[in-house]
Automatic annotation (TrEMBL):
The keyword S-adenosyl-L-methionine does not apply. Residues 34-316 form the ABC transmembrane type-1 domain. This is Lipid A export ATP-binding/permease protein MsbA. It comes from Dyella acidisoli. Keywords: ATP-binding, Cell membrane, Lipid transport, Membrane, Nucleotide-binding, Translocase, Transmembrane, Transmembrane helix, Transport. The lineage of its organism: Bacteria, Pseudomonadati, Pseudomonadota, Gammaproteobacteria, Lysobacterales.
Length: 596
């Protein structure tokens, strides 16, 4: 219960701004909103109107047997409730329509942010949080932007209507409300504070729940092989326990508020009876008036209860909206480039390039100088963690150099626009991410989508991929399963190479493209890669030195520096780090080196 002590300001400037912005989303559907509001008002008004008919029913219809009322009353009642039925339908559908549209708009805005944010964003947060923004948090918005409106209008009109009924029947008896209203305001404020606090935690909790599930599903093989079931189960239990605990807290808060309001209501109703039965007034109040006022006050209670809780819905929604807007507002990838690069010659120069990762202030590159002449192959070798991937990740500007510059065709590469720069680069990495679709759709991916079938086939052929594609039931139009899970590592790699061939970009990056493969697929892929590298400026990171012996230059990296550079023969003659690495691999893997 420690949360109760820390007070959060409700409706500070920040949350007012958030709420306004959220309303902006609903305002786009203003005609529907307007009809909906009218519907809710009619809905609430009808109930009060009916309550007001109680007095004539009791005093005139039954006591005086008024023939006019005896004929019309049943018709009025039907009319009131038919009108109310239509209003209820229109307004409920309308509010649902607006709510779903607002949720979709928010989801799309967040998704658009995910597509536009720099790659560094994705390393900073567990992906579970990123997923649950779309699956959970955005759903919370529907409540704040629309249900709140429904309650505010329907219940607001009901309360005002009932108040009018009470006042017009007996101003004296209405005094009983003085007991009710202040108590309810107090309860509502306390409840909202708590809701806001708890719902923030639930949101972050849902992120952890999603993240844990995602991890365990991805690691389903590891879990089975290393017997991690119990550990995974316990971890999930802990997190879901916490989620349940927080949700129960919300339920407890709502239940407390409901029963508190009912109790206060009982006091108010007792007060009403007390006031009505004073000897000085008991004779002057008719049973009809008394019953009408009593019913009106009783009818106010559920509405007041809902109004008290509407704050909470809004607070939950605001907490959700704050979280979503924070992501939507993050600055997109920086692109100061103005020049559109048509097709680079591929002259690439790194000048004293440094890279410091913001996380942990880690210096991944410490002054790298390197020149890659057009159409040549540069191999980067070195221990894992020496900065090879960091160096190549600068090319598509996933990271910007902290110091120094990168020149492309003699010009700082930051002066080119990001899309035109990225069009110059083809990339084959260690793990290939494919999308759910056919082989052809995966080869002709993104901007390549309108490639002809002939070109796709030719690319697949050159990538040595036709060999297995042919055996698929529908050839290049065969679906490859979710994320390409029907293909082997080597097959996926060849699809990635076919994609790179089809892109026909002047710069090629191969980041350990073959290190996860067996010798057989490696040979096929090496062959495909040789074709791919022809006439392109290629940066190749390879673990097996046998595969890069013919590179035009080999750069050996260590701790973010290039410590040796030259051809295979030069570096061997130097008897330095490269020669040592080579000797080590030769001793460990004599067959591979000998085979080359
Ligand atoms: N996003 C990142 N944030 C912080 N440190 C990183 C990040 N990516 C890589 N590093 C660190 O930078 C160093 C170089 O990594 P990397 O370039 O991937 O090495 P290599 O590809 O040579 O194995 C490693 O110590 C790694 O831990
Ligand atoms: Mg690497």
């Amino acid at each position: 219960m420690s949360e109760g002590k820390k007070k959060v300001a409700l409706w500070d400037a920040e949350s007012r701004r958030t709420y306004k912005r959220l309303l902006g989303y609903s305002v786009r559907f203003w005609p529907v909103v307007l009809i909906t509001i009218i519907g809710f008002a009619v809905d609430g008004g009808c109930l009060a109107f009916f309550t007001n008919k109680l007095r004539p029913i009791i005093d005139d219809l039954f006591a005086k047997k008024d023939p006019y009322l005896i004929f019309w009353m049943p018709i009025w009642i039907i009319a009131i409730f038919v009108v109310r039925g239509v209003a209820t339908f229109v307004s409920n559908y309308g509010i649902g329509y607006v709510g779903r549209n607002v949720v979709q708009l928010m989801q799309r805005d967040v998704f658009a942010a995910y597509l536009r944010l720099p790659t560094t964003f994705f390393g900073n947060e567990h992906s579970g949080h990123q997923i649950s923004r779309i699956t959970y948090t955005s759903e919370q918005i529907a409540g704040a932007s629309t249900d709140a409106l429904k309650v505010a209008v329907t219940e607001g009109v009901t309360v005002i209507g009932m108040f009018y009924v009470m006042l017009s029947n007996s101003a004296y008896l209405t005094i009983a409300l003085l007991l009710l209203i202040p108590a309810i305001v107090l309860i509502a404020t306390a409840v909202s504070r708590r809701y806001r606090m708890i719902s923030r935690r639930i949101q972050s909790m849902m992120g952890s729940v999603t993240g844990t599930v995602e991890e365990s599903i991805e690691a389903h093989r590891e879990i089975r092989i290393y017997g991690g079931q119990q550990q995974a189960d316990e971890r999930f239990k802990q997190i879901s326990d916490r989620a349940r605990y927080l949700n129960l807290k919300i339920i407890a808060t709502a239940a407390t508020s409901t029963s508190a309001i009912q109790t206060v209501g009982a006091f108010a109703l007792a007060g009403l009876v007390f006031l009505g039965s004073r000897p000085s007034v008991i004779g002057s109040i008719s049973p009809g008036v008394f019953i009408t006022v009593l019913t009106a006050m009783g009818g106010m209670l559920p509405s007041l209860k809902r109004l008290a809780n509407v704050q909470s819905t809004m607070q939950t929604g605001i907490a959700a909206a704050e979280n979503l807007f924070a992501v939507i507002d993050l600055p997109p990838e920086v692109d100061h480039g103005t020049k559109v690069l048509e097709r680079t010659k591929g002259d690439l120069r790194f000048e004293d390039v440094r890279l410091v990762y913001p996380r942990g202030d880690f210096q991944a590159l410490v002054g790298v100088n390197l020149h890659c002449a057009p159409g040549t192959v540069t191999a980067l070798v070195g221990r894992s963690g020496s900065g090879k991937s960091s160096l190549v990740s600068l090319l598509p500007r996933f990271n910007a150099p902290t110091n120094g510059r990168i020149l492309l065709d003699g010009e700082n590469y930051e002066s080119y626009t990001l899309p035109s720069l990225r069009r110059q680069i083809a990339w084959v990495g260690q793990s290939v991410v494919l999308s759910d679709g056919t082989v052809a759709e995966n080869i002709a991916y993104g901007e390549l989508a309108d490639a002809s079938e002939q070109d796709i086939m030719a690319a697949a052929e050159a990538a040595n991929a036709m060999e297995f594609i042919q055996r698929l039931p529908q050839g290049i139009h065969s679906p490859i399963g979710e994320g390409g899970n029907m293909l082997s590592g080597g097959q996926r790699q060849r699809i990635a190479i076919a994609r790179a061939i089809l892109k026909n970009a002047p710069i090629l990056v191969l980041d350990e493209a073959t290190s996860a493969l067996d010798t057989e697929s490696e040979r096929l892929i090496q062959q495909a890669l040789q074709r791919l590298m022809r006439d392109r400026t290629t940066l190749v990171i390879a673990h097996r030195l046998s595969t890069i012996e013919h590179a035009d230059q080999i750069a050996v990296m260590e701790q973010g520096r290039i410590i040796e550079r030259g051809t295979h023969a030069e570096l061997m003659a130097l008897s330095g780090h490269y020669a040592a690495l080579h000797r080590m691999q030769f001793n460990e893997r004599p067959t591979v080196v000998a085979a080359d």
